[in-house]
């Protein structure tokens, strides 16, 4: 790998880590976009994005917890819920048409983001 | 109980390929009036179990051998710590606005991509 490529991947990692630490989400998405932009094989792109995001998330979660931002009661409710939902979502994945999925999730994200800015 | 169901809904979105915390954080803030950094911590922890299992499966299947991964992880590990510290320094309004803009941008990309298809 030449120096230019190394710099590109370091920049992708830096952007992904920063977003993940700042917002608590989004690191995997940034890695995924970086991998696809570099025209790397798509087969490993999701695996790489998830693995990198897991590392950023572990570090961010430790930092947030160290700063007293973890609410144990909330975690007891949310973590099992998200794990169960993740399983159900992965089962749904092959059944919903890709276009419907994009429109549904896109509208949900845009609406929730707009609500956060406005209220 | 409300938090559990918000977790399930966000988890479904995560299972469908969109970061669940992107929906969990605003829904916890808007429905249960949870402070943003506390909601973000919940989103971080909520991501870990499924991502850990997925990464373990991908590791066993030798799908994690791309040469760029160490560079991405090394740089990201440093900036993830810096980003978390930055989150504590920013005002609530600023952090909320950045989160909202990020969600709107990702949502718009998905909508445009879905409409074009």
Which terms summarize this structure?
heterodimer; A: 119 residues; mainly alpha; 0% strand; globular; B: 117 residues; 83% helix
Structural class by SSE content of chain A: mainly alpha
The helix-and-strand class of chain B reads mainly alpha
Hey, roughly how much beta strand do the residues of chain A contain?
A: under 5%
Bulk shape of chain B: globular
Q: What's the total helix number of chain A?
A: 5
Distance between the termini of chain B: 38 Å
Number of domains of chain A: 2
State the order of secondary-structure elements of chain A, H for helix, E for strand. Answer: HHHHH
Number of domains of chain B: 1
Oligomeric assembly: heterodimer
How many E strands of chain A? 0
Mean pLDDT of chain A: 91
Q: What does the main sheet of chain B amount to?
A: none
Q: Detail the poorly predicted runs of chain B.
A: none
Helix segment count of chain B? 5
Instruction: Report the sheet with the most strands of chain A, covering strand number, pairing sense and barrel closure.
Output: none
Describe this structure in words.
- The complex is a heterodimer of chains A (119) and B (117).
- The model of chain A has no long low-confidence stretch (mean pLDDT 91).
- In chain A, helix 1 packs antiparallel against helix 2 (27-37), helix 1 (3-23) crosses helix 3 (45-66) and helix 2 (27-37) runs antiparallel to helix 3.
- Chain A is mainly alpha-helical and 119 residues long.
- Chain A has helices at residues 3-23, 27-37, 45-66, 72-92, 98-118.
- The longest helix of chain A is centred in the middle third of the chain and has 22 residues, at 45-66.
- With 117 residues, chain B is an all-alpha fold.
- Chain B has one domain.
- Chain B contains 5 helices and no strands.
- Chain B has helices at 2-15, 21-32, 36-60, 69-89, 92-116.
- In chain B, helix 1 (2-15) packs antiparallel against helix 2 (21-32) and helix 2 (21-32) runs antiparallel to helix 3.
- The longest helix of chain B has 25 residues, at 36-60.
- Chain B is globular.
- The model of chain B has no long low-confidence stretch (mean pLDDT 91).
């Amino acid at each position: 790998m030449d120096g230019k490529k190394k710099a590109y991947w370091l920049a992708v990692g830096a952007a992904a880590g920063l977003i993940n630490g700042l917002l608590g989400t989004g690191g995997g998405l940034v890695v995924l976009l970086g991998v696809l932009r570099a025209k790397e094989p798509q087969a490993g792109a999701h695996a790489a994005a998830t693995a990198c995001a897991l590392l950023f998330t572990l570090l961010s979660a430790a930092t947030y917890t160290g700063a007293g931002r973890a609410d144990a009661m909330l975690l007891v409710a949310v973590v099992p819920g998200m794990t169960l939902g993740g399983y159900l979502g992965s089962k749904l994945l092959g059944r919903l048409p890709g276009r419907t999925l994009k429109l549904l999730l896109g509208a949900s994200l845009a609406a929730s983001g707009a609500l956060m800015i406005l209220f | 109980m409300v938090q559990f169901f918000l977790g399930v809904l966000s988890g479904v979105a995560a299972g469908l390929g969109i970061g669940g915390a992107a929906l969990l954080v605003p829904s916890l803030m808007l429905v249960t009036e949870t402070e943003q950094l506390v909601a973000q911590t919940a989103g971080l922890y909520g991501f870990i179990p499924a991502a850990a299992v997925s990464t373990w499966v991908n590791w066993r299947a030798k799908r994690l051998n791309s040469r760029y991964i160490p560079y991405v992880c090394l740089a990201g590990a440093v900036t993830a710590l810096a980003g978390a510290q930055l989150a504590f320094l920013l005002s609530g309004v600023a952090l909320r606005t950045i989160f909202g803009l990020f969600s709107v941008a990702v949502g718009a990309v998905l909508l445009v991509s879905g409409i074009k298809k």
